[in-house]
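G., the chain you wanted modeled:
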Amino acid sequence: MGKTTGFLDYARMDCPTRPPLVRLGDFAPFHEALPLPLRREQGGRCMDCGVPFCQAGLAFKERLLGCPLHNLIPEWNDLLWRDNWDYALARLLKTNCFPEFTSRVCPAPCEGACACGLNGQSVTIRDNEGAIIDYAFQQGWMTPRPPQRRSGLTVAVVGSGPAGLAAAYYLNHRGHTVTVLEQDDAPGGLLTYGIPAMKLDKALVKRRVALLEAEGITFQCGTTVGRDISPKELDQTYDAVLFACGARKPRPVPYEGDAGGGLCYGLDYLIQTQRHLDAGTPSPLSAKDKRVAIIGAGDTASDCVATALRQGCKSLTQLIRKPAAYYPPELDDAHVESQAKFGRDIRRFETTLHALACGKDGKLRQAVLNTPQGEKTLPVDLVIVASGFSGCEDASLQVRDAMPRPEKVFSAGDMVLGASLVVLAIASGKQAAAQADTYLMGCTNIL
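Predicted structure as tokens:
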């Protein structure tokens, strides 16, 4: 498996990145590809370990251990080392329908479970995965594969985020006629609007959607279920309905009325930014020339940090409720950028927002903070709340629960899991597709 002594012969080599202060000038992707000979060496670092926990996908002590999709990681790392790219692609696609997404936005629990990391540095599993799928697209191997036969049965998938796209992919390959209903004006859900473009190039999402359309999936955008189509109409039109509406509802904060319009939620901020980037117009929620405070410490908060930096914020402070010891010492990409920009760590640990105060002009001017040293003030013009989500939006749940025949209704993704990872949403979409397929056909081969 791989090069027998590869983990000893080759050091871990991550994908290079553009310098932090350079990449702050645009929203273009900042990770660059390794030359193919070096990428092969990274595949050769994969050990022939007796139990490859990298593909386990288990929850252990509240931590995800290995890939939830059960990717055949040692197999395609070995094929990558042997320069057998087409077979590596076949093994990758066996378990993961969208590796171009997971290789860019997944936090790589597979690498945390890599045996090579027990005494050294883990294998660059995520980057190897991305190299395989990118090479496949470059070589023209990723062509439409519509099903040879149609079942004559129809399925509606409500929502086109990663869970909805995965469910549509598998149900379509089973021969069902799939229509994806999306309330936004473009498919992709948070892949399109919620993840900043420098982390996930929107051209990749459009490319995948075009491939799904060529395979026979219909996307009906600008359609809100419950307004444009009723639960009764859904029931009468489709043989099965699968809801994958996400969990966009933010945890509310009590400060909105005191913010003078200077407070917004993280996901709203990211969505507005992407919409206006697409349109080439300035966003009304821009951080340009503003003193910004961001509340929260998760992925959405980091995405807001990176976005505010690119918009040209005047200052930036991140308020984190937990102590610093709770977080790894390594900085993520967004905080590498903020440190390069401001020359300091922007995070204030064990700090919460107590109150907001506006100036005589009615606009937000100051935040009152609770800190370990007591109450302190912070000059602010914009507060972005990225402190998590409380679940699926009420309207989506009401439509799903109003379906006349619950036995033909299925759910997937963050709507079921709560706000989670893209890779978990894809796994959930695949699982829900298998359940829907079993309902329609009496059995399934979606594994």
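The chain is about 35% helix and 15% strand.

Shout if anything looks off.
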